[in-house]
Amino acid sequence: MTSDNKTNELDKIEKVTLKLSGMSCTNCANTVEKALHKTEGVSDVSVNYAVEKAYVDYDPTQVSKDDLIATVKRSGYEAETSEQDKDKNATMKIAGMSCSSCAQRVEKNIANLEGVSKVNVNYGTEKANVSYNPQKVKLTDLKHVVEKTGYKVIEEQGDNQQGKDADEEKMETAAKKMWSSVVFASTIMALMMVHMFIIDIPYYFPIISVLAFFPIVIIGWETHVSSWRAVRNLSPNMDTLVTMGSIIPYGLNLLGFWLPISSFVEMAAMIMTFHMVGRFLEAKAKGKASQAIKKLLEMGAKTAHILVDGVEKEIPVDELQLGDVMVIRPGEKVPTDGIIISGESSLDESMATGESLPVNRKVDDQVIGSTINKQGMLHVKATKVGKDTFLSQVIKMVEECQGSKVPIQEFADRVTGFFVPIVILLSLSAFILWMSFPDFFVPILQYFNFPWTMVDLPILSLSLLAMIAVLVISCPCALGLATPTAIMVGSGKGAENGVLIRRGEAIQTIMNTSIIAFDKTGTLTKGKPEVTDILSYGEFSEKDVLYYAASIEVSSEHPLGQSIVEQAKAKDISLTSVESFSSITGMGVKGTINDKSVLIGNRKLMTENNIDHQAIADSMEKLEHEAKTAMLLAVDGKLAGIVAVADTLKDDAALVIQELESMGIKTAMITGDNQRTANAIAKKAGISRVLAEVLPDGKVDEIIRLQKEYDTVAMVGDGINDAPALKQANVGIAIGTGTDIAIEAADITLVRGDLSSVISAIKLSRATFTKIKQNYFWAWFYNGTAIPAAFFGLIHPIVGAAAMAISSISVVLNSTQLRKVDIDPSYYRK
């Protein structure tokens, strides 16, 4: 290897520091170090057990930071990048983009900056989402690149309020330009009619040339500036086509004094006017598409009443701090997320979960900011404020989804990158071919003889008409808006119904899902064990069995034990304190109550303590076949009975599984339960594929096995214990809990926590993707038929300009129809 090659390889090397956790000795550190060393692209690694850090030199072209973290996790430990190595995320609102090729140009220039790891510029939302290393590039550098490319960065202020105002301001500006242009164009057209059919107007052409100057040059100035910047950067855009389609005929108006060219100044004015009408209607339609975000922003309470030294005080919500005690009267909105410390009421939580019926809340229950208190007065302690609140998390997730891309969009983005240059070449070709072969083209015009075709014009005029028509009828915007607008509406619809889509690509992936793997505890089941059966034996009564079992389980932290204690309390059984309590891993617990030795646990615990339990073996097996956890109880060496506990299925579990199967999606259940219990639960739910006795760290392996068998695998879990498996699945779906919905491992979070939302998520994704495909079809169909027709002179430029505006608007309006789609499970309607 030459020294130059070595130098080039060294230039690629980057360093990263990983913070590690879970290591208990230096051997653990050695394990991590060996695993990282074996990773392709890693040139050097040192793991320090004392400071729990890994120092890695790696080639970012071969391996990413995420890959390094995944390697550590596969070794059995946790890792994250240290603060100085963490990429920051920035969202910039960009003004001045006129089509998707503008967005592509900005995206390309930002991506070329060293230190930028990911960038996505969305023309539909007019935002750039950038992940960057603050050690290598600053936010000001990103803004500078945008401005250098020819666009403006709009500063967004607290709670996205500025972004909202900017959208409204843009619509108002577009409306002013549209109406001003319409006034001038209407005047020009009226004068033309008078001049042609009523009376010969003196100095007609100078008059309309002056009038046309206003819509074409003054009102359309921003369009021309954008066009010039694009051409200067060698990436012509939609504005370039409009500029050429309006300025060229306007300029040719002057040449008409010397050349046999008809006057096109009226046409030029109408082209710019239709462009302005299209811009306004597109802005208005895009505003409708993004209504979900605006609705969410409007939902929040503006003020809060808090107690300060026992005195009630009204303050802006922005000034709330953690621990503040809020006073919430009937009819008022909950200002921020919190926990009830006094009072009881029912709350309208439809804005958060989509659930229309009020939900009862009492002391120690969590409440969500912006929900409405319906009845009693509440005192609520603030637990989350600002960007950490439920509502802020929802807005952030919806914006992340709207700012992401789906795989189908990548091809369209590549096409729009060279769409405009091809259109310009086609328009020039149309002019040259018309001038060269008039005997071929003119008979075509004569054959169709549309009302707007003017066969009697000189061939130079006809050639120019064909060239201009090709320019103004072409519409890359329709292609650029096809996906973003559908994602905007779809993600908003999901948020309104408790389905939060974090990543847009999940919309395309989940609709192709072959099998959904459900975690059992807390996902298929309620996650709260309940005592189902108490069986006594010998001299003991059922009350005795519950007394001894609950008394000893008071000292246990196991959920099964706590369910027994709650059952005893519900039956008003007084419990006794335990002496010599001890937990026996994998078997149960033991202790002394009233000088009597008490054992509760599985068969193995009884066998090891020489307690014969064969007399009730049949009862044990029967309970286990019913998906119940049966625990044997012994008092002073005598078998006393059985306590059975079960984590029951959620009410809608069987209905959801049935509907998924009818939709052609197979289902599986992953659980740590023994095979017999797992089979019983799966049978109740209607699940045919059972993956039992799976340890927590084995769930990832099970997902990998399913992925080898099926094309696309989705995983539904709680997002905490199941995070690695959710990450491994093609689509991770997390069941939300309370106000904690920012589950990083999940592509989709279901706020309500019920399984019916899985159906809603799939129906929403299918409906959204259908709209995307419809949008692309009409965009391709429009351009594929309109451009050839314009090339042959069959479409007048004015008609072409109107058609161009309509094509973009139709795509956006088609996307807004998603708001009307029913995504509820079909069994809701039975």
UniProtKB/TrEMBL annotation:
<dbReference type="InterPro" id="IPR017969">
    <property type="entry name" value="Heavy-metal-associated_CS"/>
</dbReference>
<feature type="domain" description="HMA">
    <location>
        <begin position="88"/>
        <end position="154"/>
    </location>
</feature>
<dbReference type="InterPro" id="IPR059000">
    <property type="entry name" value="ATPase_P-type_domA"/>
</dbReference>
<keyword id="KW-0067">ATP-binding</keyword>
<dbReference type="InterPro" id="IPR006121">
    <property type="entry name" value="HMA_dom"/>
</dbReference>
<dbReference type="InterPro" id="IPR044492">
    <property type="entry name" value="P_typ_ATPase_HD_dom"/>
</dbReference>
<keyword id="KW-0479">Metal-binding</keyword>
<dbReference type="InterPro" id="IPR036163">
    <property type="entry name" value="HMA_dom_sf"/>
</dbReference>
<dbReference type="InterPro" id="IPR023299">
    <property type="entry name" value="ATPase_P-typ_cyto_dom_N"/>
</dbReference>
<keyword id="KW-0547">Nucleotide-binding</keyword>
<keyword id="KW-0460">Magnesium</keyword>
<dbReference type="GO" id="GO:0005886">
    <property type="term" value="C:plasma membrane"/>
</dbReference>
<feature type="transmembrane region" description="Helical">
    <location>
        <begin position="780"/>
        <end position="806"/>
    </location>
</feature>
<keyword id="KW-0812">Transmembrane</keyword>
<keyword id="KW-0813">Transport</keyword>
<dbReference type="InterPro" id="IPR027256">
    <property type="entry name" value="P-typ_ATPase_IB"/>
</dbReference>
<dbReference type="InterPro" id="IPR023214">
    <property type="entry name" value="HAD_sf"/>
</dbReference>
<keyword id="KW-0186">Copper</keyword>
<keyword id="KW-0597">Phosphoprotein</keyword>
<dbReference type="InterPro" id="IPR023298">
    <property type="entry name" value="ATPase_P-typ_TM_dom_sf"/>
</dbReference>
<feature type="transmembrane region" description="Helical">
    <location>
        <begin position="203"/>
        <end position="221"/>
    </location>
</feature>
<dbReference type="InterPro" id="IPR006122">
    <property type="entry name" value="HMA_Cu_ion-bd"/>
</dbReference>
<feature type="transmembrane region" description="Helical">
    <location>
        <begin position="415"/>
        <end position="437"/>
    </location>
</feature>
<dbReference type="InterPro" id="IPR018303">
    <property type="entry name" value="ATPase_P-typ_P_site"/>
</dbReference>
<protein>
    <recommendedName>
        <fullName>Copper-exporting P-type ATPase</fullName>
        <ecNumber>7.2.2.8</ecNumber>
    </recommendedName>
</protein>
<dbReference type="InterPro" id="IPR008250">
    <property type="entry name" value="ATPase_P-typ_transduc_dom_A_sf"/>
</dbReference>
<dbReference type="GO" id="GO:0016887">
    <property type="term" value="F:ATP hydrolysis activity"/>
</dbReference>
<keyword id="KW-1278">Translocase</keyword>
<feature type="transmembrane region" description="Helical">
    <location>
        <begin position="241"/>
        <end position="258"/>
    </location>
</feature>
<keyword id="KW-0677">Repeat</keyword>
<dbReference type="Pfam" id="PF00403">
    <property type="entry name" value="HMA"/>
</dbReference>
<comment type="similarity">
    <text>Belongs to the cation transport ATPase (P-type) (TC 3.A.3) family. Type IB subfamily.</text>
</comment>
<dbReference type="Pfam" id="PF00702">
    <property type="entry name" value="Hydrolase"/>
</dbReference>
<keyword id="KW-0406">Ion transport</keyword>
<feature type="domain" description="HMA">
    <location>
        <begin position="14"/>
        <end position="80"/>
    </location>
</feature>
<feature type="transmembrane region" description="Helical">
    <location>
        <begin position="457"/>
        <end position="482"/>
    </location>
</feature>
<keyword id="KW-1133">Transmembrane helix</keyword>
<dbReference type="InterPro" id="IPR036412">
    <property type="entry name" value="HAD-like_sf"/>
</dbReference>
<dbReference type="GO" id="GO:0140581">
    <property type="term" value="F:P-type monovalent copper transporter activity"/>
</dbReference>
<dbReference type="GO" id="GO:0055070">
    <property type="term" value="P:copper ion homeostasis"/>
</dbReference>
<dbReference type="InterPro" id="IPR001757">
    <property type="entry name" value="P_typ_ATPase"/>
</dbReference>
<dbReference type="GO" id="GO:0005524">
    <property type="term" value="F:ATP binding"/>
</dbReference>
